[in-house]
Amino acid sequence: MKSNWIFAILFITLIACGRDQAEERVEEEELREVPEFNADSAYSFIQRQVDFGPRVPNTEAHQETKRWLVEKFNEYGMQVTEQDFEAKAYDGTNLKLTNIFAAHNPQASKRILLAAHWDTRHLADKDTENIEQPIDGANDGGSGVGVILEIARVIATSGMDPEVGVDFILFDGEDYGEPEQTKPSDRNHSQIWWALGSQHWSRNPHEAGYSAYYGILLDMVGAKGARFYREGYSMQYARNIVQKVWRNAHRLGHGDFFPMRDSHEIIDDHVFVNQVAKIPMIDIVEYSPDYGFGKYHHTHQDSMDLIDRRTLKAVGETVLFTIYQE
């Protein structure tokens, strides 16, 4: 009996030593240098979008924003593709939409895809006033685009190329779904009316046979006090990528923004990229397992007053670091 206890102690000691050595190897892992993510620059990109006005499809603000986005990617030396298409909205409106795709180092075989949506909600259906008026969408739409533009700027101008190709896609028509007040019995169930741009691109990629190693979707990534939980579909389709990104966030000191806690599945652009395009994509999105979306969601509170540079920094640094470690 005594010898069994001695064996057990030795076995536990060996396991502990092995764990210590493994942790030491992780700490000694050589990390690649990463250029600086500038939260002020990302903030200015969001402000510029809001200055155009609500980026609702079929409006002049939408067209002006598109021209500016394409111009920025061209300025950064990206290979840009505009994917124009039309789609029917839930209410029968014919929407003229454009997915914007930009590639850095298009010759690289291993590619990382970063995505956001650039359109804004056509009504404030969760508000109590001016419900029929479109929202600014500083966070819902603007923040993801702002972080992506800053990452594109940094990669293009820092003189430090990542060892992978990086693609950026801005989806259109994500936020033109049915109003919150629509009764289930009155809903048009013929298709999912959200994420029209990602649905179209996933079925009709801008380039035949396009694929990527994995993708990261950024949605509502700039609000004060934001917390980013591990979204359900991301865990289902790309658990290892979620674990990698969240681990990197904690390594960089952004653990408060990225709790190690799972949340519910939500229908967002990444669902169609996973299911149809077959590219594993995660969603960094502010959605709480306790109360769902923030109070600003689809209201006029979604303005520049909501945006916090600290949140932008936490997300931007985490994504940029992840890219440069590939």
From TrEMBL:
Keywords: Acyltransferase, Transferase
Domain Peptidase M28: 99-320
InterPro entries in UniProt: Peptidase_M28 (IPR007484), QC/QCL (IPR040234)
Superkingdom of the organism of origin: Bacteria
Recorded GO MF terms: glutaminyl-peptide cyclotransferase activity; zinc ion binding
Pfam families assigned: Peptidase_M28
Signal peptide feature range: none
Protein name listed in UniProt: M28 family peptidase
Organism: Litoribacter ruber
